[in-house]
Amino acid sequence: MRRPSYQPARFAAFARGLVLALVWVPVLLGSAAATAKEAADAATNPALEARVMAVSEELRCLVCQNQTIADSHADLAVDLRNQIRTKLQAGESEREIKAYMVERYGDFVLYRPPLKATTVLLWVGPFALLALAAFALWRTIRQRAQRLAAAAPSDAELARARRLLKPDPAGHSDR
Amino acid sequence: MKRFLPVIVFAVLVAFLAIGLKLDPREVPSPLVNKAAPAFKLPLLAQPEAMLTPADLRGKVWLLNVWASWCVSCRVEHPLLVELAKTGTVPIYGLNYKDKRDDAMQWLRERGDPYLQSISDADGRVGIDYGVYGVPETFVIDREGVIRYKQIGPLTPEALRDTILPLVRKLGA
Lengths: 175, 173
Prior knowledge:
- The complex is a heterodimer.
- By secondary structure, chain A is mostly helical.
- Helix content of chain A is 67%, strand content 0%.
- Chain A is built from 6 helices and no strands.
- The N and C termini of chain A lie far apart (101 Å).
- Chain B is α/β, with parallel strands linked by helices.
- Chain B has a single domain, classed as Glutaredoxin, CATH 3.40.30.10.
- Chain B has 5 helices and 7 strands, in the order αβββαβαβαββα.
- In chain B, β4, α3 (101-111) and β5 (117-121) form a beta-alpha-beta unit.
- The mean pLDDT of chain B is 90.
- The A-B interface holds A 62-63, 65, 75-76, 79-80, 83, 102-108 and B 25-26, 28-32, 98, 123-125, 127-131, 133-134.
């Protein structure tokens, strides 16, 4: 049944290459197109673009959560940057735009979350931990000082130690 | 007491980590729940000259399912939607998100069309208004046009049975 010319390994390599090309070429073309469009926008109005970026840097990308909208190349981030641009052009303030995003995506989009009942732990927590650690440190140091004081040698012991350490004028040792 | 301190600290740490494992960091609770569904006016996918707005659907409890032909998880949930549409329990409207019309129509021809209507949000602006960030998403909208629930990611039989359908029944009653 097997034809002699059929080479599974070569075919597999070809198929892999084909799949990679099919996946990556559109992705690269797509992002290149998106970047080109943004670059064109930036060239026409650098001041506006700087403001778009300033707002974007404050907002979290929902798709890739450890990036800001400014950093991300995700489709949604590009869309949101466009939305910010449109809103800035329409004369909306940065505060209004952030409020708009929070209305839709929640406080989670803000890289600097507001202080409120649900976020108190987030804001106060680290300082509380620091205070706790400082307290523990202070107690440990104090306890150690007390232990050392308790273990300090008495006057009689000190006098004996001095006698033992003094060079003996008679020339013979204790040993 | 002092001897058990490390054990206690360890137990607390384990408890926190265990809870952390259960949480899905990708799931962002929507602030839109219990708010009015954002208004839009979008062309129907099937007849681009006709428009649909949420106001047309006042007085009905309905589902808004955000989908796209490029969306892989949409394929997973689609049979469930088709099934649900057959039962006629609740009208399902589709928001075809950032899709090409031809691809979307083709997709519906191949897999069945559970939607009373799909509207096309070609540039994704309405998607942003609805806080869409991970297609598919499904909103339950009540008679007054208020969003009552949002499912992020594909519908599952469990989510339908335990959350969405009971909610629809309650809102429709």
